[in-house]
Amino acid sequence: MMNQVEGLKRKLVKAHKILYMEGVREFIMGHVSVRVPGENLFLVPGHVHEIGGGIEDVSLEYINVCDLEGNKLEGELPNLEELVIHTSVYKNRRDVASVVHAHPPMTIALSISGKTILPISAAGIYWGVSKPGAVALLDNDWPFISDQKDARELIRALGKRRAVVHRGHGMVTVGRSIEEACITAIMIEHTARMQLLASLVGQPKVFSEKTIRNWEEGVGKHVLENNDIWSYLENKLKKWEAGKIPGGPIPPL
Ligand SMILES: [Zn+2]
User: How far, in Å, is the centroid of ligand 1 from the Cα of 206?
Assistant: First the structure.
């Protein structure tokens, strides 16, 4: 198990840096977790903000091993305040191997207006925005998820979906792998950006159900495989860290 846990920890560290690079963040916040296969355990960063860190500072020593009740079994830092997001998803969704919680600005801005994310872009419709309502909106006048009551509302809103947006707070995405949960988060933030831009000049137009079905089963499936996108993001991270992408990769709104 040790080698497997070490490998997952390394992937988690990279996942946090990729989310930061792709703008799936607001200020310092966000966390990715992963289930340890075959165990009632998962890996998740500790409370890096307590030592002045942000999502981009997550490193191997800051990743805790927790059980599904939220008890910390290993790790230097205290647990996250929003740990219940991760424990409640793992307990309620056996199909989920990885959870992302983040506070990305475009997604939050859209949620504040009471709008859900629409199936308007090629990348979005394959990655969780396959119809209106595919990304749930939790609208409960409370900007945090830290106790069992908050978690119950989150789980109810998420249902069997890949993602839920909590109004004025952030998003939770889930996946069968770290890659899938993270790419879904990135694509939802990307779609929210497109939707906001389109809304400035008119009513965003959505793809029809038939088009989306054909896309998902055909070209979309082929061109948007997990591995292709994740390899691209890993390479982009290397270039970014080497200073080869001047000015940062996030285009301004
Ligand atoms: Zn949060």
Answer: 29
Q: Which residues pair with 172 in a beta bridge?
A: 101, 164
Answer whether 0.85 is exceeded by the pTM.
yes
153 CA to middle of ligand 1, Å? Answer: 14
- The alpha carbon of 214 and the centre of ligand 1 are apart by a number of angstroms equal to 35
CA 166 to centroid of ligand 1, rounded, Å = 9
User: What distance in Å separates the CA atoms of residue 80 and residue 89, rounded to the nearest whole number?
Assistant: 15
Distance of CA 101 from the midpoint of ligand 1 (Å): 7
161 φ/ψ angles, rounded to the nearest 5 degrees: -75, 175
Two tokens, residue 196: 């906001």
The alpha carbon of 82 and the centre of ligand 1 are apart by a number of angstroms equal to 7
Condensed to tens digits (0 to 9), the pLDDT of residues 26-64 reads 766 889 999 999 999 999 999 988 888 888 889 999 999
